[in-house]
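Long-time lurker, first post. I've been practising inverse folding by hand and with some scripts of my own, and I keep getting stuck on stretches where the structure tokens seem ambiguous. Below is the full token string for one chain I'm working on. Before anyone asks, I'm not after the true native sequence, just a reasonable design that respects the backbone. If someone could post their per-position residues I'd love to compare against what I wrote down in my notebook.
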């Protein structure tokens, strides 16, 4: 029976969607072969173009064929368009590969019906409530390292239909979700397979050659091409071991400072504004108290800066003014004219400013009161020769700790709110 396609906006789109050929014989690569045993979750960690999506799509199709009308499959991606455009309609998507197996496909309702009666629902993970309630025989979350972790765990509660419910997670590692991925990979009923971009023989020599020249074994190449979970970048100024001895701050601190590395724009492609709070104890030990960094408009980040200042009852706000000049202080004082502000200007390179602070960590003179995942990832992966992005949280940290290390003799006690 031919598939019925709903929600298509043009004849051209329909012809494109119905024009594929799913009869081509497929020879899987080793990392695309489903593992044996009674596993519940199959993690496929692979580099870009390694064949993760196709492996999962074919596993889902086999599941639909096997269970027939009993199959209930949930497909998740970081956002709704990714679930539709990649997991279903992408070159290696479920619907693109096996469109002849579906009797209905509704892009608008984000659902499809297999010819055997099985049901497929695909959506984003932005709102965990979408995954609260439905029951599944199989789940597939694509780019898990970019998904909302709460949606994954909500969906797991619904993975309870049939005699052997299973989940597939496909992803390239991302530092920001490293702890979450470790939890998923570390489960006793999880099986992990890995593959690199170079394991896909279909990629052209010119493409592979460009990737190798451009990224090679650098940090981005190791993560995006070789699918390595990077703890520390080679040449990074900080080591993870220096951050592990966490402890609460003492009840009284003699100085508290808010360090700010401001972004001058507030769109989705802007840098973040780094906002780090740190304090010094009576024994001159420095405690990193909070990370309030965010991507926002100047008025929004200024509110966050003043909010952090007030919450921690700080003494001073220290802000870099290289890009914004006097506007940085004016923006903050628009929120509260009374806050004390000291402008600092970067006249030397980031590495020169950061090296003394890294040395303080190595000597055990700085303690984090809790895990600050994004800040610590930035600290342990940024290298002095990395010009690809601005380490905003790291910069704010350096400004705050540089101010505290000057020991200007302010001995007034401050209490943490």
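-- Answer (accepted) --
I ran through it position by position. Result:
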């Amino acid at each position: 029976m031919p598939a019925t396609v709903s929600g298509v906006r043009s004849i051209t789109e329909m012809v494109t969607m119905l024009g594929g050929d799913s009869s081509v014989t497929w020879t899987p690569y080793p990392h695309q072969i489903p593992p044996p045993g009674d596993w519940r979750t199959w993690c496929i960690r692979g580099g870009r173009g390694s064949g993760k999506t196709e492996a999962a799509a074919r596993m889902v199709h086999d599941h639909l064929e096997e269970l027939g009308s009993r199959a209930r499959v949930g497909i998740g991606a970081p956002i709704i368009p990714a679930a539709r455009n990649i997991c279903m309609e992408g070159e290696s998507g479920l619907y693109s590969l096996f469109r002849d197996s579906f009797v209905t496909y509704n892009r608008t309702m984000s659902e499809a019906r297999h010819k055997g009666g099985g049901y497929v629902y695909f959506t984003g993970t932005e709102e965990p409530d979408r995954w609260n309630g439905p029951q599944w025989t199989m789940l597939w979350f694509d780019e898990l390292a970019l998904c909302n972790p709460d949606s994954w765990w909500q969906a797991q509660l619904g993975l309870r239909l049939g005699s052997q419910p299973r989940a597939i997670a496909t992803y390239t590692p991302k530092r920001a979700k490293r702890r979450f991925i470790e939890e998923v990979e570390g489960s006793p009923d999880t099986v992990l397979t890995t593959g690199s971009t170079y394991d896909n023989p279909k990629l052209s020599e010119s493409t592979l050659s460009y990737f190798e020249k451009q990224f090679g074994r650098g940090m981005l190449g190791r993560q995006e091409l070789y699918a390595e979970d990077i703890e520390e970048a080679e040449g990074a100024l900080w080591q993870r071991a220096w951050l592990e001895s966490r402890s609460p701050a003492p009840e009284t601190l003699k100085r508290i400072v808010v360090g700010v590395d401001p972004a001058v724009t507030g769109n989705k492609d802007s840098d973040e504004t780094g906002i780090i709070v740190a304090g010094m104890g009576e024994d001159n030990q420095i405690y990193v108290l909070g990370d309030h960094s965010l991507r926002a408009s100047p008025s929004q980040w200024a509110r966050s800066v003043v909010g952090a200042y007030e919450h921690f009852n700080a003494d001073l706000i220290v802000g870099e003014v290289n890009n914004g000049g006097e506007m940085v202080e004016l923006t903050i004082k628009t929120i509260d004219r009374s806050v004390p502000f000291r402008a600092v200007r970067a006249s030397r390179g980031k590495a020169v400013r950061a090296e003394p602070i890294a040395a303080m960590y190595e000597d055990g003179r700085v303690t984090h009161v809790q895990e600050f995942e994004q800040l610590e990832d930035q600290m342990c992966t940024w290298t002095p020769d990395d010009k690809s992005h601005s380490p905003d949280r790291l910069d704010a940290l350096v400004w705050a700790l540089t101010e505290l290390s000057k020991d200007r003799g302010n001995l007034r006690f401050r209490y943490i709110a």
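A couple of notes from the structure itself: DSSP finds 13 helices and 17 strands in the chain. The chain has two domains: 4-224, 240-415. Happy to go over any region you disagree with.
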